[in-house]
Write a structure and sequence with these properties.
The chain is α+β, with helices and mostly antiparallel strands. 49% of the residues lie in helices and 10% in strands.
Length: 1184
């Protein structure tokens, strides 16, 4: 099996942390790839497993297999910390009377965990080393300003090489670095690893055969034995293994060990034996008749931490993040804790349960929490080890020592992390940590004296060297405690539990992630709300009696009755009255004039004869009109069945006259009949205008976890294309209100349901089925569609003056454009447009003196609303209304949401570079140039002038947008493809406007053919990018301008004898096949599909590629639908104009300033080409 080129989550490192994380995620049906540099089985130290291992292995389904493997079972561990007596930690405290864990041979145990990840569904590869990681800039969610997380950018791909010489790269959405002590992210990219100078030790160990058993015949016979060295420099371990060996190691301070070894002049083995005999009498006695069966192994500098353990879309786990002195066998435990934390925080972010920043902070907090617990306890115990005769942990009596040792047992057994929901265990763990902090306390006087001496020395090395040994120890203690408490700015959120930043772990298969903690303290709640410490104290002391207990104040004077009874101070502040909204005075005449203008602009009122000034302007317009432009062409009026319908000639007439228009009208009529028969709620406009019945919608709200998944989907798939919201503000609203939907205002409820509806619309059937296995996507979509419509009815959206309601309506209309027939849809978008006018979004808020945040939100809304209404108008056949001159709303700024806050007052500074707005702004910028180029050509400008405009557009879009794009980012890749293809489309349309197959030279034909190939290749490249598939909801056919023209030109070329021959012909058919294979271009309810399909069949019969015995699937489909081009006349009417290269569809001629009929023909295909055209008129004013 070869390493794939893409996955959802890449895990680097197949040790316990990486393999555990991979197993957890794979069991959640996540696409996981696990890469391990070594080949299993591989050696590793760390054979003693603590009690928590049972919990972790049980969760991934590996406990039973582990237990049956034959590892040495142990029921506890023995620690001889002082020269008085040994202490025993019994696992029955946490595992029950028969509870045990194991001493393991790590080469066997680690391979079992690694292979289990594969059995769980992960793709696993050993002997595969990750060499480099590619990062892209990431400035979302506040990562740049939070010290608890790192931000080297977002990792998007990694290069790898295998021991067999093969190599490659893999792309991913999330990365878990569990690469062990090598720690590729921490050491190579973040460079944030911090060595713990207070635990600068060295270890030497070997494996013995024939050793005597420890505590033979007793419960702790096979348990590890840890003995303090007699000189206080460290400790020694003895761990019996199931292969008959005894692992014995000596851990000592590096400075002492190296000095002694150098003075003794002994070999490594000789010094190891002598140290064992001299410093570890009890363990030495076990091996007096045993033999060493391995070489002497050595390791040093293993105690370290990092300033952060997570960043945007990556997590550090296991030794890749931190490691600590292994006195209490914490290595595998901390690996499992961090591996599980990495998995559940990745899932929480993927499922939208919280923001990526919140998930990353949770992981950093959790790793810090587990590490710090062990750090404090290890430092406490090692301090006792180094002062053998001192009673640091207790008084001299043994009972006191036992009580002290019991303080730290929940930590050293790992149950504080494995069973974090057990309140009793957490209380014991907290007591243990507090006890450890107390033992390591250094008096204020001692600290001040040493720090003053260091400060006085400054850069004087001799001054520092004059510190006494005791002063050096105090200095190390200060550093050690500082690291224990702050861990280099990593926040210790909760030493006693898993509630971090108000989020708690969900550790249940199928549901892993994070959830909002159900109960938090008052102090923590006020802290989350941002209340300062002094104010928190005041609020808690003053208001506890009433505010905390939710007792209503009866406003009695001078005190309320409750406060009189309780003897509490009473301070009641009346809320200020809500300010009344000021209305501008408007005369009746102006109102009438305004209403008449709105109706006239949208074809609902016949225009009155113009007054003198209007006549003057009309005359000037007539005089400035080019002779080629002439009078606007008339549309067609279709009558029948008691009604009439006007069709604008620019959209439908060119497709085949009345016949096609009537056919489309019949299709609309059929659609209406079906829709009316099945509709539960006709539409929010009808419901509000005629049956405004209010219905409660609480039962339609999804669970919090489901709501956060839908929000994450909306954020990932909708907002990049339809930038409308301020993400931090919306995220906070959804996160809080989805937990308590009864607190939603009617406007907020509209917005949430619209977001849920849009998110389901953006999901595929399979994706929806995986996330919501108990309900079909169509049913869920209809459920949220009804809820959104009813929410709009409940809020009375036609009379609203709330921007949030209009945002919800726009989202709903964007997602439901295929639900309604074009006629009804046009009326609905028109209503939204009228509401926008009432809110004044068509006027630029900056000129009206509005706050910067509100100005930007209104601009975003307007530049989604305007093209939406224009597209609906065009699709209905009514034509596109001109934009009034006084509509002066500017385009949104190129600014990230992180740099846009609701309380901003100063002018906004536009960013130069990639932002979340980049795609929307690039599309708008190019659209303005489409209009400039078309108008210039229509007014008779020469080829040089038109080409200079196109070159200017190309230069500007490259400089403003493309230069900042990273092709690894899917939205950036789409921006590049779209923008460059748009430039080709400008050139193509101008050349097609004057093109004739009969008159064109070979050079002109090749030039046009080359442009069409570039546009088609861009379409193919975009569809081939798996990352862009999440945006397919926004288009049914093509996402790039000029695509239909390109396809039709190539098909027409194939119809001509000798136009395309040889390799050109083969390449053309290959591209056509790829386009048909990747898109649904055979929807025969679409007029353009019929026309182009007939043309494709004619081209195939005229110029088939060589070597093809039968046509490809799309030709077979067309043939089955229409037969050969000679005997199917009903479709030829539809394709007649398309087949004729001299028709207006390809030779745009004088109508070039108007939209190409090829783009406007699609009834329901509201792709980018269609959606944006009406906005260009407005945008050209801003871009000049």
């Amino acid at each position: 099996m070869s390493v794939p080129t893409r996955c959802s989550v890449l895990v680097i490192g197949g040790g316990p942390a990486g393999s555990y994380a991979a197993s957890v995620l794979a069991r959640e049906s996540v696409d996981v790839v696990l890469l391990e540099a070594d080949v299993f089985p591989r050696y590793h130290i760390g054979e003693s497993m603590i009690a928590s291992m049972r919990y972790f292995l049980r969760f991934i389904g590996l406990e039973e297999e582990f237990d049956k493997h034959g590892f040495t079972k142990k029921f506890g561990a023995t620690f001889k910390i002082t020269d008085k007596r040994a202490a025993y930690t019994d696992f029955s405290v946490s595992l029950g009377p028969e509870g045990h864990t194991w001493n393991v041979v790590r080469s066997e145990a680690d391979e079992m965990i690694f292979r289990h990840a594969g059995k769980s569904g992960a793709q696993i590869f050993d002997g595969t080393k990750v060499n480099d990681i590619t990062f892209v800039p990431y400035d979302q969610d506040g990562f740049t300003s939070d010290v608890r997380v790192a931000n080297p950018g977002r990792p998007v791909s990694a290069s790898w090489s295998r021991k067999d010489g093969s190599s490659g790269s893999i792309e991913f959405d999330y990365l878990i670095d569990a690469s062990g002590r090598a720690g590729i992210i921490s050491t190579k990219y973040l460079k944030n690893r911090k060595m713990n100078e207070a635990l600068k030790n060295i270890a030497n160990w070997a494996y013995w055969k024939g050793a005597a058993p420890f505590a033979k015949g007793e419960r702790n016979e096979n348990s590890p034995f840890f003995e303090a060295l007699k000189d206080g420099s460290g400790w020694c371990w003895a761990i019996p293994l199931h292969d008959g060996t005894l692992s014995i190691g000596i851990v000592a301070r590096q400075d002492i060990f190296n000095a002694k070894k150098k003075a003794a002049g002994l070999s490594s083995e000789e010094f190891y034996r002598s140290s064992l005999k001299e410093l570890c009498p009890e363990i030495s006695e076990l091996v007096k008749d045993a033999q060493i069966v391995s070489g002497i192994k050595q390791a040093a500098d293993w105690s370290y931490s990092a300033s952060a353990y997570a960043g945007p879309h990556f997590r550090l786990a296991g030794d890749a993040g931190c490691f600590i002195d292994p006195y209490f066998s914490s290595g595998v435990h901390l690996a499992f804790v961090s591996g599980l934390s990495a998995a559940l925080t990745v899932q929480a972010a993927r499922k939208g349960q919280c923001s990526e920043l919140a998930a990353a902070k949770w992981h950093s907090g959790k790793v810090t929490e587990g590490y710090t617990r062990f750090l404090l306890v290890v430092m406490t115990v090692l301090k006792q080890v180094r002062q053998q005769s001192s009673a640091l942990l207790a008084k001299e009596e043994e009972a006191g020592f036992e009580r002290a040792f019991n303080f730290i047992q929940p930590v050293i057994q790992g149950t504080a992390d494995a069973e974090s929901s057990d309140a009793a265990i957490q209380r014991k763990a907290a007591a243990g940590v507090e006890f450890a902090l107390g033992v390591n306390e250094i008096s204020a006087a001692q600290q001040k004296a040493v720090l003053d001496k260091v400060q006085d020395a400054g850069h004087d090395v001799n001054g520092l060297e004059k510190l006494t040994d005791d002063e050096v120890e105090i200095l190390k203690g200060i550093a050690g405690k500082q690291q224990a408490l702050t861990l280099h700015a990593s926040n210790i959120e909760a030493l006693a539990g898993d509630t971090i930043n108000g989020l708690a772990a969900v550790i249940e298969r199928g549901k892993i992630g994070l959830k909002s903690a159900s109960v938090i303290s008052e102090a923590e709640a006020l802290h989350v709300l941002g209340v300062e410490a002094e104010e928190r104290e005041r609020m808690m002391n003053l208001n506890r009696t009433l505010a905390v207990e939710a007792v209503r104040c009866d406003r009695g004077s001078p005190k309320c009755s409750t406060c009189v009874k309780r003897g509490a101070d009473c301070v009641y502040q009346r809320l200020p009255p809500r300010p009344r909204r000021q209305r501008r005075a408007e005369s009746a005449e102006r109102k009438v004039e305004r209403y008449e203008r709105i109706l006239s602009e949208h074809g609902l009122l016949e225009s009155s004869p113009p007054n003198a000034s209007e006549s003057g302007r009309a005359s000037q317009a007539e005089e400035s009109r080019s002779p080629d432009q002439g009078q606007p062409e008339a549309g067609i009026l279709i009558g029948g069945q008691g009604g009439t319908r006007y069709i604008d000639d620019r959209i439908w007439v060119g497709l085949g006259g009345h016949a096609i228009a009537r056919g489309v009208e019949e299709a609309f009529a059929g659609h209406r009949e079906t829709s009316d028969a099945e509709a539960i709620l006709a539409d929010p406009l009808s419901a509000t205008a005629f049956t405004p019945s209010h219905q409660p919608l609480l039962r339609f709200h999804p669970a919090h976890e489901e709501a956060m998944y839908l929000w994450k989907t909306h954020l990932d798939r909708v907002e990049p294309i339809c930038r409308l919201l301020h993400i931090p503000t919306a995220a906070q609203l959804i996160h809080t209100r989805s937990q308590n939907p009864q607190l939603l205002s009617p406007a907020e409820e509209c917005l949430l349901f619209a977001i849920y509806h849009f998110a389901v619309h953006a999901l595929t059937d399979d994706e929806c089925r995986r996330q919501f296995p108990h309900i079909e996507r169509d049913v869920l979509l209809e459920r949220f569609s009804f809820a959104t419509e009813q929410a709009l009815v409940n809020v009375g959206w036609l009379a609203t003056t709330d921007l949030t309601v209009l945002q919800a309506a726009v989202f709903f209309l964007l997602a439901s454009r295929h639900k309604h027939d074009p006629n009804s849809y046009w009326i609905l978008t028109g209503a939204a447009m009228r509401i926008g006018q009432r809110l004044g979004v068509h006027r630029d808020g900056e000129r009206l003196g509005m706050p910067p945040f509100e100005v930007e939100m209104r601009r975003r809304l307007y530049y989604q609303l305007l093209p939406l209404d224009g597209a609906a108008s065009a699709a209905s056949g009514a034509g596109i209304s001109p934009i009034p001159e006084n509509w002066d709303c500017k385009p949104p700024l190129n600014i990230s949401d992180a740099n846009l806050q609701p309380d901003m007052t100063g002018p906004l500074v536009e960013q130069r570079g990639a932002t979340e707005m980049m795609f929307c702004l690039a599309r708008a910028h190019l659209g303005s140039y489409f209009l400039k180029v078309s108008r210039a050509a229509a007014n008779g400008a020469g080829h040089e002038i038109v080409e200079s405009l196109i070159q200017q557009a190309e230069s500007e879009v490259e400089d403003r947008y493309i230069r900042f794009c990273d092709v690894v980012d899917c939205l950036h890749f789409q921006t590049i493809c779209f923008a460059r293809a748009a430039i080709h489309a400008m050139r193509l349309r101008q050349r097609l406007s004057k093109f004739s197959f009969a008159m064109a030279s070979t050079t002109e034909k090749k030039e046009i053919y080359g442009l069409t190939q570039k546009i088609m290749d861009a379409n193919i490249a975009m569809h081939g990018n798996a990352g862009l598939r999440k945006y397919l909801w926004s288009v049914r056919t093509f996402a790039i301008w000029g695509s239909w023209e390109s396809l039709i030109f190539v098909l027409n070329s194939l119809c001509k004898a000798n136009m395309l021959v040889g390799e050109d012909r083969e390449d053309a058919w290959l591209r056509i096949q790829q386009l048909y294979g990747s898109r649904n271009l055979c929807d025969w309810t679409q007029v353009l599909h019929v026309a182009v399909g007939r043309l494709a069949l004619k081209a195939w019969e005229a110029s088939p590629p060589g070597g093809w015995l039968a046509g490809p699937d799309f030709i077979t489909t067309i043939r089955q639908s229409f037969g050969s081009s000679q005997n199917k006349a009903h479709a030829s009417n539809a394709s007649r104009e398309v087949n004729d290269p001299s028709s207006s569809n390809l030779a745009l001629g004088a109508s070039v300033a108007q939209r190409s009929a090829l783009d406007d023909v699609v009834v329901e295909d509201l792709d980018f080409d269609f959606m944006d055209w009406t906005a260009w008129e407005q945008m050209i004013k801003s871009y000049g």
